[in-house]
Each structure stands twice: as C-alpha cells, then as structure tokens.
Amino acid sequence: MTAKIAVLVSGGGTNLQALIDAKLKNGKIVQVISSRSDAYALQRAKNNNIKADVAERKNFNTSLEFENKILSLLDETKPDVIILAGFMHILSADFVNKFKNRIINVHPALIPAFCGKGFYGLKVHEAALNYGVKVTGATVHLVNDVPDGGKILKQKAVNILPGDTPEILQRRVMQEAEWQILPQAAEELCMKVNLFNNNNYPGRGVMIGCDKSGRLMLAYFIMGRSASSRSRIFERRDQDLIIKIIDDSKVADASLILYAPLRVLNNQVIVTNGDQTDTIYDFINHDKTFEEALRTREFEPDAPHFTPRISGILDLNSRKYKLNILKCGINNSCTREFFEYDAQAGYAHLIHTYNNNGEILPSFTGEPKLVENVSDDIDEFADSLWNALDDDNKVSLCVRYYDSFNSFDERIFNKYK
User: Fold this and answer.
1) For this structure, is 141 an active site residue?
2) Is the pLDDT score of 215 beyond 70?
3) Which residue ranges form the domains of the chain, and what is each CATH number?
C-alpha cells in the first residue's frame, strides 16, 4: 500500500529534491506538474524518472482554465496525495475540495506569522527581518480555501542571525526546516491515506501480521471523541494490556470503554476492542475455539452507532492469525465475519470499527486491509502508525513485535497522561 504523490511546483524544486532524497516508504512521487515550462524542478523530475508535466499559467486567461488543465494532468496518474512545493498560485475552493485533506503545502514561516495572500518566496523572509523577530521557521499545513489557513501538521523553528539577508535566511530556513518537516509530513499523510483512506476517525483498530524480518507483530489503538473516551491510558500488566481510567469524574459509564484489550494464553495472543477478550480467553482455556467464543457475542449496544466488536488472535506456534468483526446487520441482527491468514514476512492485516466520521458512525465494511512493507524497526513502524492517527482523536496505541512467546518488544503511546 504505497500512496501515489503528485508534486506541484513553480521554480527550482529544492523541496521536490528533499522529497526525492527522503526515499519515502509510504508514498511514491508519480508526477510533477510545473506552472512554468522553464522551472528546473522539471529537470529534477526527469533525472529521477518521474513523469514531468507543464501547465503554463501565462497560457491561460483565467484561473479556472489553469486549474482545469492541472486537473486533466492529475487525472492521468490519479494521485492519493498532492504536495505544493514552491507552487506560486492559490488554488480555488472547488479544486481543494476535490482533494479534501489530501493536499499539503510548505510555507517558509511559523504560521500564523507572515502568511496568507501576498506572503511568498523572499517576501516572507523580508517581512520577518523588517519586523525584527528573533525566530522564524517553516510550517507544513493542510490546504483549504484560505491561503495558508489549513490545519498545521508540522512546524520547525529557525533562529534569525546577525547579518542575515532575505536570501541567506531563505536558504537556512530551507535547510534547517523545510527539507526536514516536508518529507516527515508527507510520510505521515501517506500512511494515513494508505491505512485509513484519510478517515480521521477509524475508531478502534486491530492489526496483526509479520514484519519484513519475519517477526510476528500486532498493534491495537483506540480513539475518542468524548471526554470520557479520552480519559484513558494503556498500561501493561504482566504480559497483558489493560485500560485505565485517568479521571473518574469524566466517566459516567465505563462498561464499554474499560476492558483488557490484550490477553495472553499459552502461545496465543488475543486482542479485541472490548470485554470479548475475556470471552475468547475463557473459551480457549476450556479447549473451545475463537469462532465458538464470538458466536456468543454481538455488536455493542450503543445505538445509534452499534459499534462493531473487532477481535483478533495470533498463534505464535503455528504463525497463523484470525480476525473477526461482529456488526449490526438486517433488522439489527448480528453479522459475524471471520478471516484467517498465514503470517507472511512484511505483511499484516488491519481491521477497525468505523469507515468514517459523522454524527452516526458507519461500521467498517469489506475485508481487513492488507498492509505491506511492515518495517522491521519497531520504533519506525510504531511512530508512523501513531502519527497516522488523527491528532485530535487518537488516545492510545500499543505495538508488539514477538521474537518468541516470552520475548517481545513493545511500544505504548498515551496521548493523555
């Protein structure tokens, strides 16, 4: 699952080169479009066997004609993500909405300082020097219909030094900030698109599989929109994982949010989004099966969402794993779907509770998502997954890589302490 990236440029393409040099793992640049035919960025694209196209702004009478040309070129590659890297034109709301939350821009200042209409290129650095600020920097943000007004994704500060000119400052901001945070933000957005189709509220999720070196792995995350669902942390208890309430005063009913999401029995690791963890554990402990246990359970009774119960089990001996979802079906009947896999190096499967955000949360549909190229660096993978979860809604994440039954690496993230 590699996101396709189109980069829009207007000049030399130094930020494009930073993206190329970063060798992104979750995304691949498939197209570069320049608003100028003489932009050196086009040569950078050709040097790296990337499709290079031109939509010469001066050849179009209106912005609409110009944008329609860009859209026709984008239609040739159908990118998942668009990156504005020194693109000197403001895109219309209609254009942006076609790729909502999938366009990012790098701006050479710490937004909200020195940003908006009229602030571009050297003008930004001239303004910072004229104002006399001691610190500037760069920002990567989502693009919306307000110039430089989208959600901030990354920022990095850069000191202003005695003797700085706009040109010197511009170069240092690029080197110390833009070239670092733009690839980072691109990587994280691509991961989010790959795993969640840019859904900012996948809810709770289970991923099981194998890293590229052959180690078995699993991950579990929770998200929350209310004060009660956010007042939680993950904590290890022996080999199990439990959820603890941070502030009892914020939780009126803990029945659906307080449970042990991960329990270990002999050579099997059980991970679920509810108290069905205990049901599965008890059935297996009495020589019954994962399937038998879940046939006794249904989706959550939290109308109108009827949140699915999702479950997984990893057998460390056989190197097989199973996933299940219990969701609301016809006339509120329970639909039970089971999936079984042999572990394959570098691949995992992900299942989560919700297809997208909304007043009523729609249940996950289809088969578990195939995740490719699972890194054999647990920190790299765990950081990428944590950063792919929407920052406003994520609560906790646990990732484990198993060397054997009694030996595993674990990373736990808790947003709220």
Assistant:
1) no
2) yes
3) 3-196 (3.40.50.170), 205-414 (3.60.20.20)
